[in-house]
From TrEMBL:
Belongs to the peptidase C69 family. This is Dipeptidase. The keyword Hydrolase applies. Keywords: Dipeptidase, Hydrolase, Protease. GO terms for biological process: proteolysis. Gene3D superfamilies: Penicillin V Acylase, Chain A. Its EC number is 3.4.-.-. GO terms for molecular function: cysteine-type exopeptidase activity; dipeptidase activity.
Length: 476
C-alpha cells in the first residue's frame, strides 16, 4: 500500500504489507494459497469483512481519491472483500474470492527506481490500491484473466504508485508488478514453489518468451531503447526496475530472509542480502498454519526479536507488528463441489495476538462481528477487541505469550472442527443445502472467536491488574 489522499492533496502515507504465495504442489493439501498482511499507519484503521453481490457492484466507478472515472461491465460476479470501515478515502477492498473461485489480493507496495519514473512517470489520476480489487476481481474467471484485465487497465489509465498484486485459481498462482506509470510484468508461480514478497520490486529472472510470463506490449523495447538493463547476460526485473537501497537492507530483505530461513533452512543466507530469490522451494508441504506463523513473525528465535533484550533487537522491520490491520489467506481447495472450494481465512491484527478463522467465501453475507466494524472503538467488534489484546500483550509479551498462544490453538482447533463437519455434511449430500450450512458455520465460527477473545481479554485484564505498579500490600 502506498498513498492515501485527503481532499485535493496527495498525502504520502506509506502503508506496507507482506505477501506469501503457495503453488498447489507446494501446499499440504493441493490448494493454491495467496496471503497478505494488510498493514497501515501507526494508528488503527478498522477493517470490515463483506460480500459484494452483483447488485451492489457499481456500473460506473468514480475514485474517491482522484479524477479516475470509468464504466464497468454489466455482469459482475459476487466476491468477498475486506474494505476499510470508513469509506472516506475510498474502498480499499484489499482482497477476496469471487463466485468463479478466483482470488485476488491487492496490493503489496513495491519500489520503482528514479530512472524508470523519469521515463514513465506516475499518473496522478490513475488507478491504485484503493481501486484495483473493485475494478478487477468481479470480472475474471481465471488467475491469468486477472493479470490480463489489470494489465489492460494499467496501460489505459496508468497508476499513481508502485504495487504488486497476486491472483489465483484452483490451478495457478500469478504475481503482477506495476512498473512506472503504465508498464507491468507478471509471472506464474511454479506449482511446486512458494514466494515471499516484501515492499520492494520482487520478480527477478524473467523469460520474455515463456508461456508463464505476461507483460506490457512494449516492455522489451522500453528496456532496450532506454539502456535500462544493468546485467550483461540476464534479464532480471528487480535489477532493471527495482531498488537496492539501505532501506531495503533494514526494511525489506530481512522479511524475505526469515520466511526462506523457515521454509528452506538448507540454504544459508543473510538478512541483509539484496538478491534473495523470488521463486523458492520448501523442503516440506506448506499449510495455512505455516503462513500464519510467518505473517505473525517478529523474528522470534533470532537476535532481532523486539521482545528480547538483545543488542540487535529492533534492528529490522518485522512482519507481525502494530501496523497489521488484517491478514488473509485466500485458499482455493482441490474439491469438486464449487461451494467448498473457496476459504477466506481472516484475522484482524496485530498478528502476534490474533488467530485466523477459515470462513467459507461462497456465501451471500458475513458474520456481524466481522462485517459491521465501527470506525470508532467498540467492544462489539472483533477488530477492536484484538486491538485491546495487542496493546496489553505488547506491554509484557513474556507474561501474556502462553495465554495468547493457548487462545489461538483452542480457537483454531474449534473452528477447524466446525469447518470439517460442514465439509463432510455437504460432501455427503453432493452440495444440497450448502448455502445454509456455509452461512451457519461462518456464524458459529465468528461467535466462537468473539467468545474466546472476550474470555482471553478477561484473563489478561485480571492478570494485568495484579501486576500494576500502583499497588501497596499491608497485612491487616
Amino acid at each position: 500500500m502506498l498513498f492515501m489522499f485527503t481532499n485535493e492533496n496527495y498525502q504520502k502515507v506509506r502503508k506496507t504489507c507482506t505477501t506469501i504465495l503457495v503453488g498447489k504442489k507446494a501446499s499440504i493439501d493441493g490448494s493454491t494459497m495467496i496471503a497478505r498482511n494488510e498493514d497501515g499507519g501507526e494508528e488503527p484503521n478498522p477493517q470490515r469483512f463483506v460480500i459484494i453481490t452483483p447488485d451492489q457492484q457499481p456500473r460506473h466507478y468514480q475514485s474517491s481519491l482522484n479524477a479516475l472515472s470509468l464504466d464497468l461491465p454489466d455482469n459482475p460476479l459476487q466476491y468477498s472483500s475486506t474494505p476499510d470501515a470508513s469509506s472516506n478515502d475510498g474502498i480499499w477492498a484489499a482482497g477476496g474470492i469471487n463466485s468463479a473461485n478466483v482470488a485476488m489480493t491487492a496490493t503489496e507496495t513495491s519500489t520503482t527506481n528514479p530512472q524508470i519514473l523519469a521515463l514513465d512517470p506516475f499518473v496522478e489520476d490513475g488507478l491504485g490500491e484503493a481501486d484495483i480489487t473493485t475494478l478487477v476481481l468481479p470480472y475474471i474467471y481465471s488467475a491469468r484473466a486477472g493479470v490480463e484485465r489489470l494489465g489492460a487497465l494499467l496501460e489505459e489509465f496508468g497508476t499513481y504508485e508502485s504495487n504488486g498484486i497476486a491472483f489465483s485459481d484452483q490451478d495457478e498462482v500469478w504475481y503482477f508488478e506495476t512498473i512506472g506509470g503504465h508498464h507491468w510484468a507478471a509471472i506464474k508461480i511454479p506449482d511446486d514453489a512458494y514466494v515471499i514478497a516484501p515492499n520492494r520490486f520482487n520478480i527477478d529472472s524473467f523469460d520474455l518468451a515463456a508461456e508463464d510470463t505476461l507483460y506490457s506490449a512494449d516492455l522489451k523495447t522500453f528496456v532496450t531503447d532506454n539502456n535500462l538493463n544493468p546485467d550483461t547476460n540476464a534479464f532480471n526485473l528487480r535489477h532493471i526496475f527495482g531498488s537496492s537501497s539501505d532501506k531495503d537492507i533494514r526494511y525489506n530483505n530481512p522479511r524475505a530472509w526469515y520466511v526462506q530461513k523457515y521454509l528452506t533452512p538448507e540454504i544459508k543466507q543473510l538478512p541483509e542480502d539484496q538478491d534473495l530469490p523470488f521463486i523458492n522451494h520448501s523442503q516440506r508441504k506448506i499449510s495455512p498454519a505455516d503462513i500464519k506463523y510467518l505473517l505473525s513473525s517478529h523474528y522470534q528465535n533470532t537476535p532481532y526479536d523486539p521482545y528480547e533484550d538483545a543488542v540487535e533487537a529492533n534492528k529490522y522491520r518485522s512482519i507481525g507488528l502494530n501496523r497489521n490491520q488484517e491478514v488473509h489467506i485466500l485458499q482455493l481447495r482441490p474439491l469438486s463441489i464449487p461451494a467448498l472450494v473457496a476459504v477466506h481465512w481472516l484475522a484482524y491484527g496485530p498478528n502476534p495476538f490474533n488467530e485466523l478463522v477459515p470462513f467459507y467465501a461462497s456465501v451471500t453475507d458475513t458474520p456481524l462481528p466481522y462485517r459491521d466494524t465501527s470506525a470508532d472503538f467498540s467492544t462489539d467488534d472483533v477488530y477492536w477487541l484484538v486491538r485491546i489484546i495487542a496493546v496489553i500483550g505488547d506491554s509484557n509479551y513474556a507474561l501474556y505469550h502462553d495465554m495468547i498462544e493457548q487462545f489461538a490453538m483452542e480457537t483454531l482447533t474449534a473452528c477447524l472442527k466446525l469447518r470439517n463437519e460442514s465439509d463432510q455434511a455437504i460432501i455427503q449430500t453432493a452440495g444440497a443445502n450448502s448455502d445454509q450450512i456455509l452461512a451457519d458455520t461462518n456464524t458459529a465460527m465468528a461467535a466462537l472467536y468473539l467468545k474466546n477473545t472476550r474470555h482471553l481479554l478477561n484473563k489478561m485484564v485480571k492478570l494485568a491488574s495484579a501486576k500494576m505498579k500502583l499497588h501497596f500490600n499491608l497485612n491487616d
